[in-house]
Write a structure and sequence with these properties.
- The structure is a single chain.
- The chain is α+β, with helices and mostly antiparallel strands.
- The chain contains 23 helices and 23 strands.
- The relative contact order is 0.06.
């Protein structure tokens, strides 16, 4: 028989819980730094070092296996375990499918663990190959020198009470820094860009650049229609047979003005062409003379300066003083083709600066030259210029959440607390007070956060704060009990209560909780969920007596449900099979019961596929409706997105924008909805994209950005997500969508460009779209 190979396939949804994380890189110091950021005990951590290949045993990275690995971490990738010792990425499936019990027979008992990397392949580890954190640390060399003459130094109190920086400047303060430059004259440097060039005279400098061209042409036309008088005779040349519109009073000044204006425009065209050439041949020097393109940052001005034909030099560095503007400017009229070339080259150079790690220069290009403030703020944040990024977010983009995050990352905790208080983000406030060693203020903030979450019926998050941050286990268990069985987090609350009791060793309380569930009659919509939760406890709870009791109660409750015949039998039978996976007779009986229950109900008509062969070998079929879901008719639904877990709908109800999320197989009572009040007119198209882990990006075509709205976890959607318009998408949106890798692509105008953003919002790719 020919052996069948098993392959890894990427999945858009996580297929298993994360119990390990892979850290890429060859430097063990990087591994230790990432592990230390998790805040976990590293004593019992197991390290599986992955080689580059079968021929090159140098490290590609390390897989860290430990309890309580973080669910999200940008420096590592999550891995789950299959068959007790095979570690694979959580977003992968097997083709063909292989069950856990089959993996136990396929994998060798001589190996302690296996790691399946998408690039390296399957790697096996013996017991001696498993490393510990202590193996990465080398003890310091003891110096034999004489230290007996050391003198004690000055003792400094190292306790941290607070970290405070200067006050966040307001918009008025920032804009006020530029008032002294209003109406001042700026030196211009044309020598670097221009070779021998005909100078335009004082008449050109008196003309207001390209803006005077229509007036000059009109003056020339009027002058040509006027009779030109001879200065000596006082007679009209037209009357004596001479031509009109000569060089006299009427025609001379108009012709000069027209000529001087055309000379100025020609000189400016030459400067722009040389600027384009320099931006390609010597971009660092060309950026000094780059022409800004309008907008709120670096484009605000008061009055017109004396026109000229030279480009002035600027410092290529981001500065908050550039927000002021206010000076007189010399407007240049550039044709659309050159504008497009300049804008595209500016974006290419900005992406180049980001790749080179010169974030302030990139922010200067985005903010001053392109007027793309969202990209400028994102680049500043990536470059750890948190103060400037916070000012742009708060004062220019009106995004206080992003501003508070930047202040927190920059260590400006006092200012971050003030901003979080305005946003009523009490949990974040408590976390900052903990870092400032102010326990009383932290406890008060955490209690406010619990009350806020309980109002939203987010029992899981409230219980986690009570358990992890307030150290009130009894209150956390009571909160989880409040979520069972009538909340959307019922199953998660049930599982978490058993996990918490097992972690604390309260096995008697767990047995009492199981006994209380044994009195369930099997009625209600949560009865199948109860069976699944008891089966989970029967498999994973650490105490043998609790596991046996939970398995018995699960069988009793499931028999009551199946006897009534009103619930879907498939999830209940799956739970029963989990109780004894080694019992093949039980699995056979469950499959037989499932087939019997299907035969008692009238079969639904199977969809017929009407296939026909077309030219070119393309096969088509007529789609058949297999299912329908009733949704609200009071909302004018505009867009829909679907994932493996459920569906997302967005539309208008009056002047409000509605976003609804529902799971496949759930009733309409379990739908989750968030509302933005009066964002725009109800006629504007809605953009909606769902990321690979359920994150929601929503926006309005050519509309303002939507502030963040939180959707709490449910049994169908376990993670908490935020729905908002990403601040780094910019203005004048035409459309956006996300890819399975997490990159977001957007189309903006003018000019019409396709931009790609990394998961952290950094612009990485720009492609012009031809008209």
């Amino acid at each position: 028989m020919k052996p069948l190979s098993v392959k890894l396939r990427y999945s858009h949804e996580p297929q298993r819980e994360a119990c390990a994380r892979f850290i890429a890189g060859t430097d063990s110091a990087v591994w230790l730094r990432v592990m230390a950021s998790w805040g976990l005990s590293l004593v019992d951590v197991q390290l599986l070092v992955l080689p580059q290949s079968g021929q090159d045993v140098s490290p590609l990275g390390v897989l860290v296996v430990c309890d309580g690995v973080p669910s999200t971490d940008h420096g590592s990738l999550p891995y789950g375990v299959v068959g007790d010792k095979l570690y694979v990425p959580v977003e992968t499936t097997f083709s063909p499918f292989v069950g856990d019990d089959e993996w136990q027979t396929l994998l060798s008992d001589d190996m302690t663990a296996y790691v399946w990397h998408p690039v390296v392949g399957l790697v096996g580890y013996e017991a001696d190959d498993v490393r510990r954190v202590s193996d990465l640390i080398e003890p310091l060399t003891v110096n034999d020198g004489d230290w007996s003459r050391a003198e004690p130094g000055v003792t400094i109190n190292s306790r941290l009470w607070s970290i405070a920086g200067p006050e966040l400047p307001s918009a008025d303060e920032v804009l006020g820094t530029g008032k002294g430059t209003i109406g001042t004259k700026v030196d211009k440097f044309g020598e670097l860009l221009s070779g021998p060039m005909q100078k335009a005279g004082q008449g050109v400098r008196a003309a207001a650049g390209a803006a005077m061209l229509p007036f000059a042409m009109l003056a020339s036309k009027v002058a040509s229609m006027m009779p030109n008088r001879d200065a000596s005779s006082g007679k009209s040349q037209a009357a004596s047979g001479g031509h009109s519109g000569g060089t006299g009073v009427g025609g001379g000044w108009a012709a000069k003005l027209l000529k001087k204006t055309f000379d100025l425009l020609h000189a400016r065209d030459r400067q722009i062409d040389k600027l384009l050439q320099m931006l390609h041949s010597n971009p660092d020097e060309g950026l000094k003379f780059a022409i800004p393109f309008g907008g709120n940052f670096g484009g605000a001005f008061r009055g017109l300066a004396i026109p000229g034909f030279s480009l002035m030099s600027r410092l290529v560095d981001f500065s908050l003083g550039g927000m002021s503007g206010g000076g007189a400017v010399d407007l240049w009229d550039i044709d659309p083709e050159r504008q497009m070339r300049l804008l595209n080259r500016y974006r290419e150079l900005a992406e180049r600066e980001v790749r080179l790690g010169r974030y302030r220069r990139a922010a200067y290009i985005y903010a001053t030259l392109l007027n793309d403030l969202p990209s400028a703020a994102s680049v500043l944040e990536k470059g750890k210029q948190y103060r400037e990024a916070a000012v742009v977010y708060k004062e220019k983009l009106q995004r206080p959440w992003e501003a508070a995050r930047c202040l927190e990352q920059g260590g400006m905790f006092d200012e971050a607390v003030k901003l979080y208080e305005e946003l009523e983000a009490y949990e974040k406030i408590g976390d900052l007070y903990v870092r400032l060693e102010q326990p009383d203020d932290a406890e008060r903030a955490f209690l406010q956060a619990v009350d806020q979450l309980m109002e939203k019926e987010d029992f899981l998050a409230a219980a986690e704060i009570q358990d992890r941050k307030l150290d009130d286990i009894d209150a956390a268990l009571a909160t989880l009990d409040s979520g069972w069985p009538r909340s959307e987090q019922a199953r998660q609350c049930l599982d978490e209560s058993f996990r918490m009791l097992g972690r604390l060793g309260r096995h008697d309380a767990a047995r009492q909780r199981v006994a209380g569930h044994s009195r369930s009659t099997g009625q209600g919509t949560r009865a199948p969920t109860l069976v699944e939760g008891l089966a989970e406890a029967a498999v994973t709870y650490p105490d043998d007596l609790v596991r046996e009791h939970a398995a018995d109660v699960a069988r009793v409750v499931s028999s009551r449900i199946l006897a009534r015949g009103r619930a879907r039998s498939k999830p209940i039978l799956e739970a029963i099979r989990r109780l004894a996976p080694e019992d093949h007779l039980l699995e056979r009986d469950c499959l037989r019961y499932q087939r019997t229950s299907k035969s008692t109900t009238p079969p639904s008509p199977a969809p017929r596929r009407r296939a026909r062969q077309l030219s070119g070998g393309v096969e088509t079929f007529t789609p058949q409706r297999v299912r329908s879901i009733e949704i609200s008719t009071t909302v004018d639904w505009r867009t829909c997105r679907m994932t493996q877990r459920g569906y997302y709908l967005a539309g208008y109800q009056g002047q409000d924008l509605i976003l609804t999320r529902g799971g496949w197989g759930e009733s309409n009572d379990n739908l989750q909805t968030v509302i933005w009040s009066n964002p725009v007119s109800a006629d504007w198209p809605i953009l909606l994209a769902i990321g690979p882990v359920g994150e929601i990006q929503i926006g309005i075509v050519d509309g303002p950005p939507l502030p963040p709205m939180t959707m709490t976890p449910t049994d169908r959607f376990p993670g908490q997500v935020t729905a908002e318009t990403p601040v780094w998408l910019g203005e004048y949106l035409c459309g956006f969508n996300s890819t399975p890798t997490g990159r977001l692509w957007s189309v903006n105008y003018p000019p019409t460009t396709l931009q790609g953003f990394d998961a952290d919002g950094t612009p990485s790719v720009t492609r012009p779209i031809p008209h």
